[in-house]
């Protein structure tokens, strides 16, 4: 399948199984398969303490109640290590758990990796582990707000 500008659309596509993974993070080890039965949102982002990423995660912090009310487990994923993530969280009082994909393997498995490393993308996974929504940011200069994340989750069918 071809996406914009004739490029191949990133995998996994909507309707396909989400690849399982395990990564260290600011709240301990995260394994996707341990979250079956709940919705999961993966927020791939280029890097800690970069201007757009800082704005993105601070926007979630500033709407902490709305963010916490999202009907999903939400995690951020980028290529920095846990120590970098912990410093980023402490510096900006962030509340979203961050996962360390130092090898870039998880970003690659989700089609969120480019020449410069992790690209900004949002992947929504349903209770059965199927990708139900994805938003790949072409330039990485914008991000999905809490309201846009809620809209994506609200489109999912009710759990069986």
The beta-strand count equals 9
pLDDT averaged over residues = 91
Q: What CATH architecture would you give?
A: 3-Layer(aba) Sandwich
CATH superfamily (homologous) name: Glutaredoxin
Shape: globular
CATH class: Alpha Beta
Side by side, the strands of the main sheet go 5-4-3-8-9
CATH fold name:
Glutaredoxin
Distance between the termini: 29 Å
**Number of helices, counting only DSSP H or I runs of 4 residues or more:** 5
Helix content: 25-40%
Low-confidence stretches: 1-6
Provide the β-strand percentage band: 15-25%
Structural class: alpha/beta
> Rg from C-alpha positions?
15 Å
How does this model look, in words?
By secondary structure, the chain is α/β, with parallel strands linked by helices. The protein has one domain: Glutaredoxin. The protein is 26% helix and 21% strand. It has five helices and nine strands. The strands form three sheets. The chain has a five-stranded mixed β-sheet. A two-stranded antiparallel sheet has the order 1-2. Strands 6-7 form a two-stranded antiparallel ribbon. A hairpin with a 5-residue loop joins strand 8 and strand 9. The longest helix has 12 residues, at 51-62. The chain is globular. The termini are far apart. Mean pLDDT is 91; it is low at 1-6.
């Amino acid at each position: 399948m071809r996406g914009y500008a004739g490029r191949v659309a990133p995998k996994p596509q909507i309707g396909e199984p989400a690849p399982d993974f395990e990564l260290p993070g600011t709240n301990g080890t995260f394994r996707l398969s341990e979250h079956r039965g709940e919705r999961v949102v993966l927020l791939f982002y280029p890097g800690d303490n970069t201007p757009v990423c800082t704005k993105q995660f601070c926007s979630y912090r500033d709407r902490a109640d709305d963010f916490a009310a999202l009907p999903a487990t939400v995690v951020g994923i980028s290529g920095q290590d846990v120590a970098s993530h912990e410093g980023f969280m402490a510096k900006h009082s962030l509340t979203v758990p961050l996962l360390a994909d130092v090898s870039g393997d998880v970003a690659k498995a989700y089609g969120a990796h480019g020449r410069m490393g992790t690209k900004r993308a949002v992947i929504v996974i349903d209770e059965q582990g199927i990708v139900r929504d994805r938003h790949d940011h072409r330039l990485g200069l914008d991000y999905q707000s809490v309201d846009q994340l809620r809209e994506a989750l609200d489109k999912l069918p009710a759990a069986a």
